[in-house]
Write a structure and sequence with these properties.
CATH architecture of one domain: Roll
Radius of gyration: 17 Å
Strand order of the largest sheet: 6-3-2-1-7-8
Subunit structure: Part of the 50S ribosomal subunit.
Function: One of two assembly initiator proteins, it binds directly to the 5'-end of the 23S rRNA, where it nucleates assembly of the 50S subunit.
Family: Belongs to the universal ribosomal protein uL24 family.
Protein name: Large ribosomal subunit protein uL24
Structural class: mainly beta
InterPro entries: KOW, Rib_uL2_dom2, Ribosomal_uL24, Ribosomal_uL24_C, Ribosomal_uL24_KOW, Translation_prot_SH3-like_sf
CATH class of one domain: Mainly Beta
Length: about 100
């Protein structure tokens, strides 16, 4: 089970976007990277193609390491722990002890 999942609200804790919050658009467990909506924006030079005949400069979100974000539960950034509940492993917010899912 993962600590951060797609569609979670997270807060960035390091880097140029420190303090920003956003929704996780994707998570790659092999590289342990997350893409957060509206954060870590980079400019990409795109060649003209069939899909975009004009080409040009596009701004898009780049991946962050998962260790640089914290899960937001009830408006508060918290660490994530795990515990067994009714024989199932569930995510738990460390600060409040609340079951996340």
């Amino acid at each position: 089970m993962r600590r951060i999942k797609k569609d979670d609200m997270v807060k960035i804790i390091t880097g140029k976007d420190n303090g920003k919050q956003g929704k996780v658009l994707s998570f790659d467990p092999k590289t342990n990277k997350v893409v957060v909506e509206g954060c870590n924006m980079v400019t990409k030079h795109q060649k003209p193609s069939q899909a975009s005949p004009q080409g040009g400069i596009v701004r898009k979100e780049a991946a962050l390491d998962a260790s640089n974000v914290m899960l937001v539960v009830d408006g508060q950034a918290t660490r994530v722990g795990f515990k067994l509940e009714n024989g199932k492993k569930v995510r738990v917010a460390k600060k409040t002890g609340k079951v996340i899912d």
